[in-house]
Write a structure and sequence with these properties.
Blueprint lengths: L2 H27 L4 H14 L12 E2 L2 E2 L5 H16 L1 H24 L7 H8 L18 H6 L14 H19 L2 H10 L1 H11 L11 H18 L19 E6 L6 H7 L4 H7 L16 E6 L1
Antiparallel strand pairs: 1-2, 3-4
Helix pairs in contact: 3-10, 4-7, 5-10, 7-8, 8-9, 8-10
């Protein structure tokens, strides 16, 4: 094929592209006819499917059987399984992050005799991230400042231990133990984490009930334990709910050493440079450091993580 033929072919191709583009523009500039819509619906019905998920035959929360024989309970669980199955990005992120953070959270729950299912409470609270709510709750366990301080966390302008996964998990364990002692049920203890111990106790007294499954609660608290259950079910049977994650796509646990700091640091950026890392990485590994400096009171020692 000579050069003239190439030029002619190119010109024809260009004209064809313009014509096709023009037809697309014309189609999208005009109102679709009924025939257009009917044809489009056939494509959708033929190619697109959204499946309702079968509920598990049996499920428990912290060893407490969930009464799935009741329609109110079944439909409440169904709602949360559907929401979290089809909220793909959120649930995928939670599963990926769990590979990094559950090895820290699980042993602390076990050491404090808190059922393992409560790790999913952190999932629904923050998607295993140092989130911050409009109400001022922060960290993996979403402690408000007053509650966090009440359970031994340091919270001030330069240090906020709500952002320390291990320390905030210990604090959550102490809260949940107190809630269990009041309510005598782990599902009620979980609900009180959302509503507050006093508020839930008052509501239970008003309704002459002491079971989470029998209480009429605000929508947020009424959904709360079911959201935990949904995440537990999806995490434990991810493939059955359509989540396919290869091992290489999971977030690896952080590998680090710790530096003991018992004297003040006037400039954490300089400190980071001395450790051979950036200021950004220092804060990423130690999100509880809230300022660009660290004043260390006499007799106090902080542990700062440095990536290995």
């Amino acid at each position: 094929m000579n050069a003239r033929v190439y030029i002619i072919a190119a010109a024809i191709g260009l004209v064809s592209s313009v014509v096709v583009f023009g037809l697309f523009a014309f189609v999208y500039r005009t109102k679709p006819t009924k025939a257009d819509n009917d044809a489009y619906r056939q494509i959708i019905n033929g190619e697109y499917r959204i499946f309702a998920m079968p509920l598990p035959e049996k499920i428990d929360f912290a060893g407490e059987d969930v009464p799935l024989n009741r329609p109110d309970v079944r439909e409440s669980l169904d709602r949360e399984i559907l929401v979290n199955t089809y909220w793909h990005s959120n649930t995928l992120l939670a599963i990926k992050r769990a590979y990094r953070w559950f090895p820290i959270i699980e042993p602390i729950l076990k050491a404090n005799e808190i059922p393992d299912d409560f790790k999913y409470l952190a999932v629904i609270e923050s998607v295993l991230s140092n989130a911050s709510s409009p109400a001022g709750a922060k960290g993996f366990w979403q402690f408000l400042e007053e509650t966090g301080k009440g359970y031994g966390l340091q919270i001030d302008e330069q240090v906020d231990e709500r952002y320390d996964v291990a320390k905030s998990t210990y604090a959550a364990c102490h809260y949940l133990k107190d809630a269990y002692d009041i309510h005598g049920s782990w599902s009620m203890a979980a609900a009180s984490y959302n509503m507050g111990m006093g508020g839930l106790q008052k509501r239970a007294g008003q309704q002459y009930q002491n079971s989470y499954w029998d209480l009429l609660l605000s929508e947020e608290t009424a959904r709360y334990v079911y959201r935990i259950l949904a995440m537990k079910e999806i995490f434990n049977h991810a493939d059955q709910y359509g989540f396919v994650i290869r091992p290489a796509e999971l977030y690896e646990p952080l590998n680090y050493t710790t530096v003991q700091v018992n004297s003040s640091i006037s400039d954490l950026a300089v400190f980071a440079k001395e450790q051979g890392i950036s200021y950004k990485i220092l804060k990423w590994y130690n999100p509880w450091l809230r300022e660009s400096y660290l004043k260390v009171p006499q007799g106090v020692t902080y542990e700062i993580k440095i990536p290995a």
